[in-house]
Amino acid sequence: MSNSINSSISPLFFQTQNASRIDQLSESAELHEPSLLTNSAPKVPFILEALPTELLLMMMRYLDRPTLNTMRLVSSTLNQIATPIPVPIKITKRSELQKTLIALNDSKRKISTLTLYGADFRNEDLQKLSASLSIHNLVLQECANIDDEGLEHVSRLTQLQRLNLESCDYITDAGLEHVSRLTQLQQLELSLLSNITDAGLEHISRLPRLQHLTLEFCCNLTDLSLEHVSRLTQLLQLCLWDCINITDVGLNYVSRLKQLQQLDLSGCINITDAGRAQLSELTSLHVIYGAEDN
């Protein structure tokens, strides 16, 4: 089936054809039987689930509320799309991005989390995001072709609360300066960014609402980064997994984070008992040191 909608198809076609199809499927699934709604129940063949998300969203525009309510009962996938709440979207191909954004805009649906996964995406794709939708959670995972210029576009998403930049190899300290403009940010994941340094963490220290910070495998960070992090007074969780240059000096800075509840020091090979002792006054803190904790 084609991934695009023929503009000549009338709204009435969708309303009549899909409503009829949904009624048939509802009857065949015997949806009044609770046992068929469990995970262990046999799957009911449903052709609409195979359609791209952007196509489904466009179709929803032509269905009345009773029909949408029926769709919600057929499957969890259609329930998620037919329910008028923010939806999570994951896109792996550039060709899908613009169509999905248009469909979301036309259907007036909001995005709970937008995930762009893989090396297919470019900086200009992020410019499209900043011009179109209000997004609260953005995941740019393994987007190897997105760099600091792309984060300048991201900085215009002023309502952003969560940003994941895991394995975006070309992000540098300059990109984190753009991120520092996202003053509503509460969760930031910077795992596997080999080009960020202590200077980048100084930019991050300007995020007043940040509660969760992940710095896994950021091998260029030193104790000076933790001095900057110590200014994040609302921080609840800090992950330093395999930040091998962190020492006891850095833990002295961490001890200033009075709200901290979880600290992951797995793989931090230069931490000693003396450094751990500095954390003893943080009575609500749970510290993970590695495999021996499991």
Total E-strand runs: 9
Question: Which range does the strand content fall in?
Answer: 5-15%
Q: What average pLDDT do the residues reach? A: 82
Count up the helices: 12
User: How would the global form be characterised?
Assistant: elongated
For the largest beta-sheet, the strand count, sense and barrel status come to: 9 strands, parallel
Extract low-pLDDT stretches: 1-45
As a whole number of angstroms, the C-alpha radius of gyration is: 23 Å
Distance between the termini: 49 Å
Order of helices and strands: HHHHEHEHEHEHEHEHEHEHE
Category by helix and strand content: alpha/beta
Strand order of the largest sheet: 1-2-3-4-5-6-7-8-9
Q: What can you see in these coordinates?
A:
Mean pLDDT is 82; it is low at 1-45. The chain is built from twelve helices and nine strands. Helix 11 links the parallel strand 7 and strand 8. The chain has helices spanning 11-29, 53-60, 65-74, 76-82, 94-107, 123-132, 148-154, 173-179, 198-204, 223-229, 248-254, 273-277; strands spanning 87-91, 111-117, 137-141, 162-164, 187-189, 212-214, 237-239, 262-264, 286-288. Helix 2 (53-60) runs parallel beside helix 5. The termini are far apart. The chain has a nine-stranded parallel β-sheet with strand order 1-2-3-4-5-6-7-8-9, covered by helices on one side. The protein is of the alpha/beta class.
Write the topology of this structure.
Layout: H1 11-29, H2 53-60, H3 65-74, H4 76-82, E1 87-91, H5 94-107, E2 111-117, H6 123-132, E3 137-141, H7 148-154, E4 162-164, H8 173-179, E5 187-189, H9 198-204, E6 212-214, H10 223-229, E7 237-239, H11 248-254, E8 262-264, H12 273-277, E9 286-288
Parallel strand pairs: 1-2, 2-3, 3-4, 4-5, 5-6, 6-7, 7-8, 8-9
